Amino acid sequence: SIGKEDEFRDLGVTLQEITGPMAVERQYPDRIGLVVTGVRAGHAMESAHPPVADGDVVFRVDGSPITSLESFSKAAAAAGNYQSTISLTYAQKTEKRHEGMYAHALAALDGHTLPTMPTAYFICPTCGNTYENKAPDRCGISLTTGALFPKSNTL
User: Fold this and answer.
1) What Rg, from alpha-carbon coordinates, does the chain have?
2) Rounded to an integer, what distance in angstroms lies between the CA atom of residue 140 and that of residue 129?
3) Residue 81's pLDDT is what?
4) pLDDT of residue 87
5) CA 53, CA 27: separation in Å to the nearest integer?
6) What is the phi/psi pair of residue 92, to 5°?
7) Do 110 and 122 meet the contact criterion of CB atoms below 8 Å apart?
8) Cα–Cα distance between 45 and 143 in angstroms, integer?
9) Is residue 86's pLDDT more than 70?
10) What digits encode the pLDDT tens for the residues 104-133?
11) Which residues contact residue 155 at a Cβ distance below 8 angstroms, ignoring those fewer than 6 apart?
């Protein structure tokens, strides 16, 4: 017997409820969770960490247990709102930090003192926060490890 299936287009994933016969056939310990039956390129689930692939079983979303398509939908909506809030907070903090950097760069241009500007910049791949001269151990905003920061030698 095949479980109900639904596509969550905004996340780029199709999920299927686990039925009793499916749990037995696939040797799942129980019917908790949803089976991933499709992942669309260019959407959130494709770039999730860890990556989500066909055949995976989703047991929890942001700590909430997943027992049905409805419970996934509710948990994903709540997590999405949380993620949006985090994203906006990162952006706000990053732009406040950049404001001071821009003012310093403009002053250097106006005063013809460009040689006093840093020669390297490291950009956090998660939030865009920028560091001068060397990458930190971790981003002060997103906590992303500094080893992942790309380096730029230009303003």
Assistant:
1) 22
2) 8
3) 57
4) 58
5) 18
6) -65, -45
7) no
8) 22
9) no
10) 888 988 898 888 888 899 998 877 889 999
11) 105, 117, 121
**Residue 138: what residue type?**
R
Please say whether the beta carbons of 35 and 72 come within 8 A: no
Whole-number mean pLDDT of the chain? 82
Distance separating alpha carbons of residues 126 and 93, to the nearest angstrom: 13
Question: How many Å apart are CA 134 and CA 102, to the nearest integer?
Answer: 18
Tracing tokens 């950049």 back to the chain, one arrives at 98
51-81 residue pLDDT tens: 778 888 888 887 788 889 998 888 888 877 5
Neighbours of 47 (CB within 10 A): 11
Q: Tokens 């903090």 — which residue?
A: 93
How much of the chain exceeds pLDDT 90, in percent? 19
The CA angle 7-9-15, to the nearest 5 degrees, is 30
- Cβ contact 12:51 at 8 Å: no
Stated as kind and residue range, the H or E segment containing 132 is: strand 130-132
Contact 73, 8 (CB under 8 A): yes
Distance CA 34, CA 49 (A): 18
pTM over 0.90: no
List alpha helices for 7-152, DSSP H: 20-25, 69-110
Residue 64 one-letter amino acid: S
